[in-house]
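Before relying on records like the one below, remember that each one covers exactly one chain. Contacts with other chains, cofactors or solvent are not represented anywhere in the record.
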Amino acid sequence: MLELAIVGFGNRGSTFAKILKDEPRVKLVAIAETDEVNRKLAETEFGVDPAKCFSSADEFFAQGKICDAIVLCTQDKQHCEMAVRAMELGYDMLLEKPAATTMDDCLKIRDTANRLGRKVMLAHGLRYAPFFYTIKKLILGGKLGDIVTINLTENISFWHFGLSYVRGPWRNMEQSTPTILAKCCHDLDLISWFMNKKCKKVSSFGSLQYFCEKNAPKGSAKYCVDCDEETRKKCLYNPYEIYTQERAKGGTGGTRRLIGKDIKAIIDDKCDEIGKCVYHSDNDAIDHQVVNLLFEGGETAHLTMTAFSKRCYRFLKIHGTEGEVYGDVGKGILHYNPYDGEPQEIDVNNMIKTDNSAVLGHGGGDYFLFMDFLSYLLNEEKTITRTTINESMESHVIGFKAEESRLKGGETLCIVE
């Protein structure tokens, strides 16, 4: 039986714990987590020995190599140092995306893994979601002919963006990660995976358009508790309303840090970013961005990232020389139109493993991602979905180049191999 540890037991870490709980090939033997509530959860819900529920990554690493592999789910800024340290101790690893917050750090992780012969897989869970996996099979089966262009829109949703990218850990790009990497690393990976060619040029535009003081309504204040009552009642981002709803209690969309806490008291006491006005915060995360990609054969792709949607979902359309496919990931229905045949609808909802709520994340991909990680550790045959640290560098390079282009006013940049 494989023994695993999870470093960072927040939203993503606990999701993987739920998946492995009933998996006979693996056992969770240790966690490292700064939050006491989450450490207690590891003990009570997942049966981790209290002596191995460490209060920091440093404390965990100080034990030496105590299991076979780790799942690293800490904040993006911490990835490089912790990943390198883990590999030097002998650990193989499932690493949350993005790999790191700079291209140099991403390459350092990759080069360390190669030098030490460690197995490092990126948690690009969307590849494994039945919606996207089915599209990949259509492409590999020649159903679309040659891919000519791809359009993908990441609709973050107004409330999710407000929580995670204005009031949350990813609000400041210098302290965390450029938004295009933090939120759309998945999307860039999907585009590269579907196209299966090298991206040669990138251009990008985007900005922080809305979540700033110029759009603050009359009567607003730095902290929502001090806001004029009538102004607060009309505000879409009133934390007393949106973070006490059921979706927040379930840990969706970055709300994991609120579980088990008195949300109203936190807002009243001004002790967490969730109580700050979205127009008077210290955020600089981009709330909309477009990325244009040119591939080596002349193929093109376009990615739109936006905070301004009601639902949190992705919409994808792929145009090929012999067919097209498109759909809303949240609805789980693919529309496949072969040019020489009748349109078809493919319902992927019944492909999702629904007896474990943890797998519903990333369109049902998290379960299959974790199973593939176990397969990787057990030296089983490689799947078409697996993305190791070497293969994941493609989407990371695109992301960092897109951010560079945005900062240069949309200048077209070449990707040098």
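The first strand starts at residue 2 and ends at 7.
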